[in-house]
Amino acid sequence: MRFLVTLGMTNSKNMSKKSNDKKKEEKQTPSEEIMKETSVDTAEEKTSEEKFAELNDKYIRLYADFENYRKRMSKERIDLLKYAGEDVFKKIIPVLDDFERAFKSLAETTDIHIIKQGEDLIYNKFKNILTQSGLEEMKSTGEIFDSELHDAVTNIPAPSEDMKGKVVEEIEKGYYLNGKVIRHAKVVVGN
Fold it and tell me: Is residue 164 within 8 Å of 142, Cβ to Cβ?
């Protein structure tokens, strides 16, 4: 029983403390209330400062990511320009090897017919590689002169009336690469 009484006393002490705390809160002066509000405001300011720091950190990271992306793209662009013809060169190297073998066989062979066949094979192989890479010959002879496609070397009297203003002779071929003019044809125009 003694134990129960002690518990009862403890509970009554706790209750009296709670009621005393409530009374103290009610008796607070206006300056204490302002202090409480100020502490709440500083907690809110810390929260907004933390939000600002978080947003600033995100911005800095995003900016750094963008800068890294920009540098990487610039490097890739430079590499692309530097090695743009690599694929074509890889295709042309075997033709170079064929030429070297042909030059070696010239010293050993006296039959001109065999040499001519070898030259034709190498020429056709080279031309096919260029065609597969997108190179296309420009047809100029008999066409109307177009300054976008042709460079006029000279004018001559037209051999016939229907050849006036047209290409009479092609001195140097013009070429397209994937539809774009990469070399203008040098031509003679009829007047």
Answer: no
Among residues 88, 173, 96, 176, the alpha carbon closest in space to that of 132 is found at 88
Q: What is the pLDDT of residues 103-137, one digit of tens each?
A: 888 888 888 898 899 999 999 999 999 999 999 99
Backbone torsions φ then ψ of 173, nearest 5 degrees:
-65, 150
| Its pTM surpasses 0.90 | no
Count other C-beta atoms under 10 Å from residue 107's C-beta: 7
Question: Which tens digit of pLDDT belongs to each residue from 52-96?
Answer: 999 999 999 999 999 999 999 999 999 888 888 888 889 999 999
8 A C-beta contact, residue 121 and residue 147:
no
Distance CA 72, CA 42 (A): 44
Residue with tokens 């009336």: 161
Q: What are the structural domain ranges in the chain?
A: 48-84, 85-133, 136-191
In the CATH scheme, what is the code of domain 136-191?
2.30.22.10
180: β partners: 177
